[in-house]
Amino acid sequence: MRQDGPRRVLAGIDAAARRAGLRPGMPAARAMAMVPGLHLVPAEPEADAAALMRLGLWCLRYAPLVALDPPDGLLIDIAGAAHLIGGEAALIADLFARLERTGLCARLALADTPGGAWALARFGPGGIVPPGGLHAALSPLPVAALRLSPEVVAALREVGIERVGGLTSAPRAPLRRRFGPEPLLRLDRALGAEPEPLAFLTAPDVPQAAARFAEPVSSPEVLERIVAELCARLVPDLERTGLGARRLDLVFRRVDRLDQAIRVGTARGSRDAAHLARLLTERLPRIDPGFGIEEMTLTASRTEPLAERQLSGAVLGQGPAIADLATLIDTLRLRLGPERVYRLSPVESDLPERAVRRVAPLSAPSGALWPADLPRPARLLDVPEPVTAMAEIPDAPPLFFVWRGARHRIARADGPERILSEWWVADDEADRVRDYYRVETEGGERFWLFRDGPMEAEGRWWLHGLGEA
Amino acid sequence: MLPFGAPGLDQALPGGGLALGALHQIHEGGPRGRYAASAVLFAGGILARLDGPVLWCLHSRDLFAPALARVGLHPDRVVYCETWRDAEVLPAMEEGLRHRGLAGVVGELTRMGLTPSRRLQLAAEGSGVTAFVLHRVCGGEAAEPEPSAARTRWRVSPAPSDMDTNRHLGRPRWRLDLQRCRGGAPGSWIVEACDAQGRLAVPRLLANRPAAPERALRRAAFR
């Protein structure tokens, strides 16, 4: 509730009040008449602004460029940062879940432009608009979604323009003459025809190195040199505080104020200036310097304590080797995506397809192994393939099998190795038994076959693996 | 230099063993060239006997790590990267070959031209890390091998295992063809596949005898 001249009006409401039909901007007297026993508290705009700032700084975990959109919005530029979290959809889902857990009710939208995302979060369904789909997504929204002043919205309504689609199809010159530059500028910014500079936040109290240039720079060679220089200046900072960088943000301030940024992550804390510079340089081609860059800021936005000497790994390799391995893993993860570089670790499961689990490439060696007495195939098919097989008597290995139209006579075989289903993992696995046979064809090829039930119960045959160790 | 411990094999290789810090190509013989299942274990067994981490560049999801552990390559030592296309495998391998701490780099490829093979061979020489290219044949029979700068080219094919075991499975056997070897002689051997330490063995009865020609082998299997 806030004071608006002589009247008291609602400034903000919670979900229950919304269900009761209350809206922000409503006079307090009317609201109290509608909902008896309504609990009103004075608005605290300063506290709200401070909270928004805290939330904005927290959002730096998702991307290096975050701008405030007071009183209740945040604009996050995730270009070049979503890969560290596993893509755009994963980022949105993670952000939403975390906000919800803190009790904040949020509407999220991801689009090509800040204006487009703003409109979709506040007036549209939210969610992710694929590149190029902004025009279609904005058309059905009311013109107020373009961040127009109420007067302009009312004036547009008078001439029958209520939707964004109506504005895009109207002739531009008369619009400008009648309503001034505002509607067209907002429209062009929302659709990406006109760039929109934002004032991005900077995180306080983190290791940082900045360079400002008298003449704007844009050539890739110069940028590369500056990246190396910034890394070299950041490292002593990290050394003094005993930290290693886990994530670096490099923000480019362009002459036209359209900031761009790159973000890279490392698998373990690093103070190796050359390595950090190499990671950043790999991403440099994604930066469009425009008419030139006048300032670059390198921030170690995530750090972890790092001992003076890198710790040595026990099983993975000797001391220097593991530090070297970390740089290799960083480079590969940057190139391929973090989820595509991993180690595999044993899981205690009888089912072969569940016997393996991915672990982070530099996690501590577990030393664990699979049972040594069970021969296993070198290749395991993702989905077992059905085969036609013939066995003489129950529980005997088959005499031959037909796979992909080719008939294989079995010369030698061992089995069955009976594997019971893990009924405690999934319901539909109840009563499922697999009898695995290792077979060798006349040519010496080895296969791993199983029958998914006893012969009497008409179990079918499947091929699951090839080759054997 | 890493000797195989199999007399005939080591004699054919210059220096008496497999050259380290070099590129080796491994083809899978037999009709299942697409899966390169024996080739995987052959490379895994060699790496098991070296020290240090291994980078394994995958071409599809079908590699089954427990089998590698059974030839002595501990899962803690292997870092996998999902490089689904040849165009991703080659740069990832080259990157790995620049890091001296590694025992080896394995890449699963469908084909490799002369220039990429030169780059990998040079990178391997520079760092001393050993590189293995496992060829996964796409469709049908293996094409005529392309020229390559690799130090050796092997073909590993499944061979019938010991026949005395009365229809039970013995240790798997391979027919190893050293098709090309710089400074060495090509040759063919029947070997017992890698054991839990990654070592090959020469079968008792076949010791010091060159592999029989393909036709004779097939006849033996029918008998």
Description:
Chain B: Residues 148-168 are annotated as: Disordered. Chain B: This is Protein ImuA. Chain B: InterPro entries: ImuA, P-loop_NTPase. Chain A: One of its GO terms (biological process) is DNA repair. The complex is a heterodimer of chains A (469) and B (223). Chain A is built from 13 helices and 18 strands. In chain A, strand 5 (109-110), helix 5 (114-122) and strand 6 form a beta-alpha-beta unit. Chain A is extended and about 95 Å long. Chain A has 469 residues and is α+β, with helices and mostly antiparallel strands. Chain B is of the alpha/beta class and 223 residues long. Chain B has a single domain, classed as 3-Layer(aba) Sandwich (Rossmann fold), CATH 3.40.50. Helix content of chain B is 26%, strand content 23%. Chain B is built from six helices and eight strands. An eight-stranded mixed β-sheet of chain B has the order 3-2-4-5-1-6-7-8, sandwiched between helices. In chain B, helix 3 links the parallel strand 2 (54-58) and strand 3. Chain B starts with 6 loop residues before the first helix and ends with a helix. The chains are: A alpha+beta (469), B alpha/beta (223).
Distance between the termini of chain A: 74 Å
Low-pLDDT ranges of chain B: 212-223
As a whole number of angstroms, the C-alpha radius of gyration of chain B is 17 Å
Element string of chain B (H = helix, E = strand)? HEHEHEHEHEEEEH
- Uncertain segments of chain A: 309-320
Identify the overall geometry of chain A: extended
Number of helical regions of chain B = 6
What's the helical proportion of residues of chain A?
25-40%
The assigned structural class of chain B equals alpha/beta
* Strand order within the widest beta sheet of chain A: 13-14-15-16-17-18
Region (Disordered) (chain B): 148-168
Protein name (chain B): Protein ImuA
InterPro entries (chain B): ImuA, P-loop_NTPase
Keywords (chain A): DNA damage
